[in-house]
Amino acid sequence: MRFKIFMLAVSLFAASVPALPHDGPHAQTASGAQVADAKPSAPPAWVARSNQNAQILLAVFARSSPENASLLGADGFDDQVADLSAAANERSKQATAEAITELKKRHAAESEPSVRQDLEILIKAAEDSIRGTELNDKHVVPYFDLPQLIFRGLRTLLDDRASEERRRLALVRLRRYAGMDEGFRPIAEVATERTRAGLKNPALAMPSKVEVEKNLANSAFFTSGVGQLFEQYKLEGW
Fold first, then answer.
1. Rounded to an integer, what distance in angstroms lies between the CA atom of residue 227 and that of residue 147?
2. Which residues partner with 35 through β-bridges?
3. Helices 164-177 and 209-232, packing angle to 10 deg
4. CA atoms of 194 and 181, how far apart (whole Å)
5. Rounded to the nearest 10 degrees, how much is the dihedral formed by the CA atoms of 19, 20, 24, 29?
6. Are 170 and 230 in contact (CB under 8 A)?
7. Count of helices and strands (H, E) across the chain
8. 41 by DSSP, 3-state: which?
9. In terms of C-beta distances under 8 Å and separation of at least 24 residues, what long-range contacts does 154-158 make, across chains too?
10. What is the pLDDT of residue 187?
11. Could you please report the per-residue DSSP string of 6-31?
12. What's the confidence (pLDDT) of residue 27?
């Protein structure tokens, strides 16, 4: 449970994840003797409640960044793609704010110290996420490294550890990146509009030349890598 809480916090504001204690095959008995194949004890009841609280923010994060949803244990987003539009950016902030309201309500009603602590972690992560987004909107031209974003979005699905069903969804995700499915615009088109709109505002800081040149230099690697992934897993139609 704590792993999920901290992983969510990491995804939102790059916090560090502490190592997790766990019961292993050499757990000590009360007398100090080692017990082989000892089974971990059942988690306390509050753990399930804390996990339910985490799902509130996990759902918000998964909708705004579906390519990373599976890394946090959120299911059902493998066919979705990030929406880079300004409208989606505002919707994400609003959804995060609504999640904070609900989490604070649960914190006020919670008496278990461990659950309260986890709620505080989630609330802080969400508040930092909104603050970071607002600072970027105010001071920085929106800029996206699309070749890397697309490659990683597909690499999550085209992996030996992914099921055959999940791998097939990579074709759906690719079509949606390209704007070939109904209701989806090409992600490159959306990103271009967003960046060009930012470039018209002289008060916004440009992406650094070093960053842009590095991204351009790596773009061929990521673009060709997409094709190699589909060939490796023998998926047709890409």
1. 12
2. 27
3. 130
4. 21
5. 110
6. yes
7. 8, 2
8. coil
9. 154/226, 154/229, 155/225, 155/229, 156/67, 156/68, 156/70, 156/71, 156/78, 157/78, 158/229, 158/230, 158/232, 158/233, 158/235
10. 98
11. HHHHHHHH----PPPP---TTEEPTT
12. 38
* Residue 219 pLDDT: 97
**CA 48 – CA 4 distance, rounded (Å):** 12
Q: In this structure, which amino acid lies at residue 129?
A: S
* 217 residue type, one letter: A
**Tell me: the pLDDT tens digits for 177-212?**
999 999 999 999 999 999 999 999 999 999 999 999
pLDDT over 50 at 74, yes or no: yes
The residue written with tokens 């946090």 in the block is 72
Residue 77 has pLDDT above 80, yes or no: yes
97-126: pLDDT as tens digits: 999 999 999 999 999 999 999 999 999 999
For the record, the structure tokens of 234 come out as 């023998």
Structure confidence by residue, pLDDT tens digits, 35-58: 445 566 777 888 999 999 999 999
